[in-house]
Amino acid sequence: MRRAAQRCPERQGSGSGHEKVCSDGKRPGQMINQTDGKASLASKAEGKRRNAQSHKAILDATIKLLGSSGYVDFSIEKVASQAKVGKQTIYRWWPSRADLVLEVWRDRLLPPLAPYDGNMPLRDYLASSLLAFGEQISRTDCRQAAICILAEAHRDPQLYQRMAEAVYAPRIKLIVDAFQQARVTQVFPADFEIDLAIDALYGAVWYKVLIRFETVDQAYIQSLVAQTLGRDDHRKAVKLGRLRV
Fold first, then answer.
1. For the domain bounded by 51-95, which CATH number is listed?
2. Domain locations in the chain?
């Protein structure tokens, strides 16, 4: 009859203490099966794989439900059913539905933003990143995720802080760094305010997508960047001393 696995006993060592090595050379805490003497670590490894699979299933289910049902009908119960996991599993990893959506929004829905390397004009870098951002939040799942997080953050200051730290602060820092780096080679008016420019650029995209329910395209983004930064011919004239700043 197969007996239950148990921990191996300590073996008396040659020193003053006990050497914590089993008779078969394994360390204590590693489970062994007395019928064959082999460690049964496969179940632990399988458990880790199941956890990773459950985590992915939950994120996938969240994206699917946001895209099909939207924020209003989104619930942990529906995510658990779709992902085939228990609600307690979800609540063990995320304290609220908004925290779950925040992770999905940050890691799976928002487009990545690379640091500015100076190899292209600032306006091209901004136009490229803004277009990717605008196209992504125009998608139903990404837009509904944003609505969920913003709605919940209005009544939960701690969630707002987590959102700012996880999403806004890192992205804004990259944009600010890009402006500061571009100042070395590009001319801006003496009173040019970087923070105001960022508000104008990203605020316009948010307004167009979330308020007017419209999409953005390359022509719109290029016009927005040109309007915010000033057109090339104006800056060239400034460099040549034909215009005062």
1. 1.10.10.60
2. 51-95, 110-232
Please, what is the angle between helix 122-137 and helix 194-206, to 10°?
A: 30
| Position 48, amino acid | K
Q: How would DSSP label each residue in 95-106?
A: SSHHHHHHHHII
Beta bridge partners of 11: 19
CATH superfamily assigned to domain 110-232: Tetracycline Repressor, domain 2 (1.10.357.10)
DSSP string over 155-168: T-HHHHHHHIIIII
Dihedral (CA of 60, 61, 66, 69) sign = positive
DSSP classification of residue 6: B
Q: What is the pTM of this model?
A: 0.71
For residue 83, what are its two tokens?
Answer: 């992902």
In angstroms, the CA 135 to CA 109 distance is 11
pLDDT digit string, tens, across residues 26-39: 444 333 333 333 33
